[in-house]
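In this supplementary section we document a worked example of the pipeline. Step one takes a protein sequence of length 91 as its only input; no multiple sequence alignment statistics are reported here. Step two produces a three-dimensional model, which step three serialises into structure tokens for compact storage. The input and output of this example are shown verbatim.
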Amino acid sequence: MTTDSSAETMRRTLQGTVVSDKMDKTVTVLVERTVLHKTIGKVIRRSKKYHAHSEDNAVHTGDVVVIEECRPLSRTKAWRVAELVTRAEKV
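The serialised model returned by step three reads:
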């Protein structure tokens, strides 16, 4: 059996904003997408929250991150933080 690195790149990725970092090694990421309503033709925003694993607790509320799918880590957590896109501005 050979190990192929192309399998690593085929994981689903999503981009969203961290809305909670109160848990240890876990962040809640809000992912928004736009959908065209099939009856009225209006563009609607849909959102969903994902729990993602952050090993070193490096991301905080307001940060924009990319999360990628991984094996289930707990009952609700099957995503991990792949990269930090932008930091939240401190006020």
